[in-house]
Amino acid sequence: MFLLNVQSKIPIHEQIRNQILRYIEAGVLSPGDRLPSVRQLAAENGINPNTAARAYAQLEACGAVYNIPKKGVYVKERTLKKEPGDSITAILQKWKKEGVTEQELLEKIAAVYREV
User: Binning pLDDT at 50, 70 and 90, where does residue 1 land?
Assistant: First the structure.
């Protein structure tokens, strides 16, 4: 499953993490897919189990996978990242529909920015 270059300056755990992230982005791994166990990954690739565990821990920290103790590591459902402006625009559109005028809004914004 993985092509690891032991001569590379990139640590093995980062190579594994990067490859799994690419597999997820490419759709090779789908949400809910189970990844190999730490021991299985280590044995198949001839690496230390701690290296495999470190790669999985980094993937979990970045939100790409989740771990169910004694069950395994699974690919997490990816949500589209929204820009902060997207939520502000949605709120403004809602207030506009509710009848909040531009002038009222500007006054509130000015008051908030004047506060320290």
Answer: confident
Residue 5: which residues within 8 A CB-CB, separation 6 or more?
Answer: 15
HEC string of the chain equals CCCCCCCCCCCHHHHHHHHHHHHHHHCCCCCCCECCCHHHHHHHHCCCHHHHHHHHHHHHHCCCEEEECCCEEEECCCCCCCCHHHHHHHHHHHHHHCCCCHHHHHHHHHHHHHCC
Task: Give the global pTM.
Answer: 0.66
Place of tokens 């005028």: 101
pLDDT tens-digit readout, 87-100: 788 888 888 888 98
